[in-house]
Amino acid sequence: MKNQLSTEDIRQMMLQLSDHMISAETMLTNLDSAIGDGDLGMTMVIGFTEIKQRILGESFGSISELLLSCADAFSQKAASTFATLLITMMKAAGKEAESFTFIDTLKASRIFDAAVASVQKRGKAQPGDKTLLDALVPAADSLRHSAESGLLLPEAAVKAQESASAGAENTINMKARTGRSGYLGDRTIGQKDPGAAAIVLILQSFTSYIV
Description:
The protein is mainly alpha-helical.
């Protein structure tokens, strides 16, 4: 278990995440084909392949530098709505982490809060609109509560993942209100939001490294 994460830990987490997201291509494509453009799986393969190549070939002096480099790598190759929001989140995380030499529960909470704020500003969506925010916001709220309660990072990560998973499941009964899915209206009810599912995968990968 890891109560704190160093720059090298974050590097290893991003390498592991890249492999996990690439292996989830079919699942993400199937989810996205039901209510989206069907390109989410391929977007993740392209973007995370680029991230993996970037961080295998470079060294990083700080967590912030690493996260910003990941955002830049993803933006070089991947282009989609989710890619834009993921890049936005990584940039926000990198900026928030400028003074961090390690990440614990409190710092993780600050990073997730920054990611939520950046996505809401960029995408104009809110929780309940059947988007990735329906998984990301519960995770951020959980991390904030864990930080306030003094929980160590492993327990906090598990709770955040569980909250994100519950949030993603809740999207099955929601009607999409934004983006391409929003045009499908009631036809989106009964389908899990692919962006929310991708957030859960990210948190599952991070948690498996921490715990």
